Amino acid sequence: MSKSQDLSEFPAGALDIDASGNLAVTGDVSLADNDKLLLGDGDDLQIYHDGGNSYIDDVGTGDLVIRGSSAVYIQKYAGENMIKASADAGVQVFHNNSEKLTTTSTGIDVTGTITADGLDISGALYPVKVVGGGSTNEYGNYIYISGDNGQDQRAVRIAAVYRQGEVKFAIDVSSDSQTYGADPALLSYTNAQTIDSSGIVTMPRQPAFYANLSAHWTAQGTMTFGNTKLNDPAWNGVGFTAPVAGKYKFSWGGIGLDVGAGGGGTARMNVAVNGVSNFGAEARADVSQDFDPASSTVILQLQANDYVTITNSDTRGWYTDYTHFSGYLIG
After folding, report:
1. Which residue from 72, 217, 258, 314 could staple onto 68, CB 3.0 to 4.6 Å apart?
2. Long-range residue pairs from 258-263, CB within 8 A, at least 24 positions apart, any chain
3. How far apart (Å, rounded) are the C-alpha atoms in residues 73 and 253?
């Protein structure tokens, strides 16, 4: 419509301009590509389509403000949500109409995985909690960090990494004491090491045991060492259960006892892992000589829960007290 066009040419009620200059239109307003709806004295706000994309341009001074009394949505033309901003509440961000991030009164909630080039946290670190997909018991597969909450309480619990049921790493820090250890259910004790408030290592723990016979041993098969000199939860008086995978050193020996008919012969002790003794290491004593000693040592690579025993593999026996079995974790 040109400025000189007579309004009487329009259908009745289709276009009306009142005395104040307000324009009322019945029906659509159609603009061609690149024709713009211009608003403001300096055409500050422009709405148009260029044939490929649609634009809302704020080209003047000030900000572009979009307001709603309840909520403001940004949606796909078919109605799928992309962003929803609610009055006096949160902002929700969607991926393919599925909510992924929501602002809350204390921060944000994220659904899914966060991938970042870095993380820089400033200010009071309380609380920060990251929970993994594993169990959430005392040494479950998770990280928990809590800063000062105003009551001088601190807690740090860092992930236990499992491999075939074995805890490889765990740190638990509470108040002014620090502990390093693994799952109590696997190691039979909670702490492998503790550090007090002054930084002194107060309780280093490493699986180790030492025991000897409480009586002469003459039976063939797995031996029982009745006198435990150095006890460890992994030792039960008969055998040693490896609490974690690693290299272990075992030593055994004693004095052969002649119990065979006619005297003489050989007494032999072998180490066995899970009932199998094929490591080429044994303590062998010539019992035809009085009090003939014998000993042997072996280093074995064990997996968690491997069971190590000593077997008397001959018809001769071993003297009490002088016959021993010991072992410990090297690393």
Report:
1. 72
2. 258/287, 258/288, 258/316, 259/218, 259/315, 259/316, 259/317, 260/287, 260/315, 260/316, 263/287, 263/288
3. 81
Residues 6+ apart with CB under 8 A from 148: 124, 126, 154
d(CA 252, CA 232): 17
Contact between 293 and 285 under an 8 Å Cβ cutoff? The reply is yes
pLDDT above 80 for 171: no
Burial bucket for residue 54 (CB in 10 Å: 0-12, 13-18, 19+): exposed
**Is the model's pLDDT at 294 over the cut of 80?**
yes
**Confidence at 118, pLDDT banded by 50, 70, 90:** confident
Q: Are strands 208-212 and 227-230 parallel, antiparallel or unpaired?
A: antiparallel
**Rounded-to-integer distance, Cα 214 and Cα 318, Å:** 11
- Residue 235's DSSP bridge partners are 240
Domain residue limits, the chain? 7-58, 71-110, 128-195, 208-329
DSSP, res 249: E
pLDDT band at 71 (very low <50, low <70, confident <90, very high): very high
Q: How far apart are CA 45 and CA 201, in angstroms?
A: 70
CA separation for the pair 88, 85 (Å, rounded): 9
Q: What is the DSSP letter of 159?
A: P
Q: What angle do CA 100, 103, 104 make, to 5 degrees?
A: 125
Q: Residue 85: beta bridge partners? A: 72, 91
More confident residue, 218 or 133: 218
CB burial of residue 46 (10 Å; 0-12, 13-18, 19+): middle
Range picked from 83-92, 184-193, 279-288, 307-316 for highest mean pLDDT: 83-92
pTM: 0.45
Tell me the CATH number of domain 208-329, given options 3.40.50.720, 2.40.50.140, 2.60.120.40, 2.60.40.10: 2.60.120.40
